[in-house]
């Protein structure tokens, strides 16, 4: 696998970070190509437990170069704080192993402010934003109203550019939301405190990637969130504001000529969802609380309790298709070990008719889950490392998923640690 993309198949929170951390042993570069600091990739290894938000999950591997591509919402403030936290646990970060695209746009401090103001205005119709400024950022980017990271090397031109943007943005802040205006003094302090420390990491990553390809380096592309949060193919409007699909990796990484050899789709052994929007397979009450507690299902970024449910084969089949997944990594199979019988959302029922096809977003609110059941294995499988050592019921569960979504399950995770994995 010379070029591989690791993506989420469902709503996000599938365990992509642990898979990137595991698989980087076979790669030279890890590239984040979209999204921002609005989601967390949880990684557990010999250095400790980490919840990464902007840093690529390859930062723990010696000899691996990590890149934030031009498609990322580059938040200097949150990135610098994250870098300091990771460094405090003994992880080395230098311009040699961490590089930021000079063409990545800066997520400016007013983007977070606008995010929170709009969610407040929406009241009971909120999108469930993490209030990290992602939607305002991408909106401004497509309006050509952002600052490129490389502009930090041109302070006079940057000052003029920021002044123009600030005058425009203050109109929205003050006239629409009645909020305080920004001043150049406030922006200059923000640049000094957060942009200057990360400036040494900014470079022409496109040129670096081109050289890596010429040198036959292996590249792992890391996505954020999952297929159902994709702006174009997800549960719109309850999506993120970028493209979470593997097909976007060449564009967002800064290497549009890249050929993708493999797409590893990460699927959790049950379903979870952070935020608002339709979630057909959702469990409620005591049943949901037991699963939430067993899996520790609380947002890595927000701490919010995740909505939970059985694995949704309709949504997973759709996610595999739009991601063009060539193989699946199934995570958290061990969490289901407490169940006597394991529920599976096999189909949807809409207006009295059953369907295997993922519906148009408007129809999702009408959809009801059709649940089937499989036997549980009722024993601890966290120490299993070989497929044949799994209980028959666990193997049957994995095989059922594999056959339903028509994609081979090649990795089965039975714990959060790096080595808690079964290779098939």
Structural overview:
- There is one protein chain.
- The chain has eleven helices and 18 strands.
- It is globular and about 65 Å long.
- The relative contact order is 0.16.
- The strands form four sheets. The protein has a ten-stranded mixed β-sheet, with helices on both faces. Strands 12, 14, 15 and 16 form a four-stranded mixed β-sheet that branches. A two-stranded antiparallel ribbon has the order 3-4.
- The chain is an alpha/beta fold and 424 residues long.
Q: Compute the separation of the termini in Å.
A: 16 Å
Could you give the order of the helices and strands?
EHEEEEHEHHHHEHEHEEHEEHEEEEHEE
Give a short account of the largest sheet. Answer: 10 strands, mixed
Task: Tell me, rounded to a whole number, the average pLDDT.
Answer: 93
Relative strand content: 15-25%
Largest beta sheet: strand ordering: 7-6-5-2-8-1-9-13-17-18
Structural class: alpha/beta
| Global geometry | globular
Number of helices: 11
pLDDT < 50 stretches? none
Question: What is the strand tally?
Answer: 18
Helical fraction equals 25-40%
Compact description:
This protein has about 425 residues and is α/β, with parallel strands linked by helices. It is about 30% helix and about 20% strand. It contains eleven helices and 18 strands.
Essential attributes:
10-stranded mixed β-sheet; 4-stranded mixed β-sheet; 11 helices; alpha/beta
Itemize the secondary structure elements and their pairings:
Blueprint: E1 3-8, H1 16-23, E2 29-32, E3 41-45, E4 48-52, E5 65-68, H2 76-87, E6 98-101, H3 109-122, H4 134-142, H5 155-176, H6 184-198, E7 202-203, H7 205-214, E8 219-226, H8 249-253, E9 262-268, E10 271-273, H9 285-295, E11 307-309, E12 311-312, H10 313-323, E13 327-331, E14 341-350, E15 353-355, E16 368-375, H11 392-405, E17 409-413, E18 421-423
Parallel strand pairs: 1-8, 1-9, 2-5, 2-8, 5-6, 6-7, 9-13, 12-14, 13-17
Antiparallel strand pairs: 3-4, 10-11, 14-15, 14-16, 17-18
Helix pairs in contact: 2-6, 3-4
